[in-house]
Each structure stands twice: as structure tokens, then as C-alpha cells.
Design a protein that fits this description.
By secondary structure, the chain is an alpha/beta fold. It has ten helices and ten strands. The strands form three sheets. Strands 3, 4, 5, 8, 9 and 10 form a six-stranded parallel beta sheet that branches. It has a two-stranded antiparallel sheet with strand order 1-2. Strands 6-7 form a two-stranded antiparallel sheet.
Length: 247
């Protein structure tokens, strides 16, 4: 207990002497992360889950867009906001590449608020909560070691805690350290870049489950779709993508 007390005291002293500066407006903020309340409010939330193929809003939580299923392995996509939002874009960049891990707090609040307001997700919670498994999109172990953390794991864990859902970061693994998708502009190259990069480590964990597959950004969807494919080949019932932003 004394050890925790002194750590807390030291942290409070540092926060007082060196307060965070907002990454958007550059003003000092009293938050425990570099984003002030005014700038945080500039991130507008989307209203509902969409089809990952035609991008239309999903209204039937039981059978979302059955006519698009042949085109994608994802059953639905929940994007909290849009990547065109400059505050959110900068926040995600600082979170991932400048390793400001404290940003997981406001970013996970965005996800939580989006999910709370989603008719699709709330119906899923009320009717199938025991079947839901939260799974982060995995990094290759070398990339995770280099970065020091997996941003998708941090976000997925927050979601599981907010909604008291089962969580697993051991069921789906990335076996190939493929080049980053942002370096590839052509959609066909992006698809081929992710082929065969995932495998299931424990099939029993995903069998007959509704997987909430969590990542930070959805652009072409190639990576999430490849992960969804391998999950369904191992008998996952549904795979639903959840991201901070859609590009």
C-alpha cells in the first residue's frame, strides 16, 4: 500500500509541474491525456453500425445484409467516427506512433459512447451477451515488441470491461509480419498483402461465438476481412468489426 501511495503522489506531482498540452489546440489541459474537453467534443460520433460492403446502415441485428454476405466475411462494421476528423486522426497517430498510451482513455470513451447509442449493439447485448467474445486484431510479435504494445488490445480490453464481456487475445494470432497496409495504395495489393497472415491458436475459444473484432482504423477493410475469414473457418458464428474510425 505505501508503495502505491508514493507512486500516486509522484504522478500527481509530475502532472502538476508538467501538465499535458492538448495535441490539437496546444493549450494546457488538466486531463491525464493530451486532449482537452473542447477539442474532444469536436469528434462527432456516427449513429449506427453499417454493412462493411455497401456501407448502408444496418437495421436488422439478427440478419444484417444477407445479400452482401458473399462479398465480405464481416457481418457488420461499427466505426465510432470518421478518419477525416482532424482531431481524431491526430489522436490515433499519437496513440500508435508516438506511444502516448494515455490516449486509450478518451479513445475508448468514443467507442463506449458509440456502442451505448447503437440500436444494433444494444440488441446484441440484450439477446446474445453470453455468446459475445471481444478479440483484438493482433500484431505480429516482432512488431508488438518494437512498438511496446498493441493499440487494438488496449481498446478491446476497455470495451470488454465497459460492457462486462468475455475477452481473448490468445485465440487469434498474426503468424506473418507483413508490410504495413498504409504503404500500399492499390486495393488488390492490400488484399494480397494480408492473405494467410492469421491463424487460430485455440479453436474452442471462438467456436459458435459472436466475435467483436477490434481495431483502430478501417480503410479498405482487407485486414479485418482476412481475420474474419479465418475466424469463420474455425466456426465463429458471426464476426463484427469495431473501429475508432472509418477512412
Amino acid at each position: 500500500m505505501p508503495h502505491r501511495f508514493f507512486i500516486s503522489l509522484y504522478k500527481n506531482l509530475l502532472d502538476t509541474l508538467f501538465p499535458w498540452q492538448c495535441l490539437n489546440c496546444r493549450q494546457e489541459t488538466q486531463n491525464d491525456w493530451p486532449l482537452c474537453e473542447n477539442c474532444f467534443k469536436q469528434i462527432k460520433l456516427n449513429s449506427e453500425f453499417i454493412c462493411p460492403y455497401c456501407f448502408r446502415q444496418i437495421t436488422d441485428w439478427k440478419n444484417p445484409h444477407s445479400f452482401c454476405r458473399r462479398k465480405t466475411h464481416l457481418d457488420a462494421l461499427g466505426a465510432a467516427s470518421n478518419y477525416q476528423n482532424s482531431v481524431l486522426k491526430e489522436s490515433i497517430h499519437c496513440f500508435k506512433y508516438q506511444k502516448i498510451i494515455n490516449l486509450v482513455n478518451p479513445l475508448s470513451i468514443l467507442l463506449k459512447d458509440f456502442l451505448i447509442n447503437s440500436f444494433f449493439f444494444q440488441n446484441l447485448l440484450q439477446n446474445k451477451k453470453e455468446k459475445i467474445l471481444v478479440v483484438p486484431l493482433p500484431l505480429h510479435f516482432r512488431k508488438k515488441k518494437e512498438r511496446g504494445f498493441n493499440q487494438s488490445e488496449l481498446l478491446a480490453l476497455k470495451i470488454s470491461q465497459f460492457f462486462n464481456l468475455n475477452y481473448s487475445d490468445k485465440s487469434l494470432i498474426r503468424k506473418i509480419n507483413n508490410p504495413p497496409q498504409f504503404s500500399l495504395k492499390d486495393i488488390n495489393l492490400r488484399k494480397s498483402n494480408v492473405e494467410g497472415i492469421f491463424e487460430i491458436k485455440n479453436k474452442i475459444l471462438v467456436q459458435n461465438k459472436i466475435i467483436l473484432l477490434v481495431d483502430d482504423v478501417y480503410t479498405t477493410g482487407a485486414t479485418l476481412n482476412e481475420a474474419a475469414k479465418i475466424l469463420k473457418l474455425n466456426d465463429a458464428k458471426k464476426v463484427i468489426g469495431i473501429v475508432l474510425a472509418k477512412g
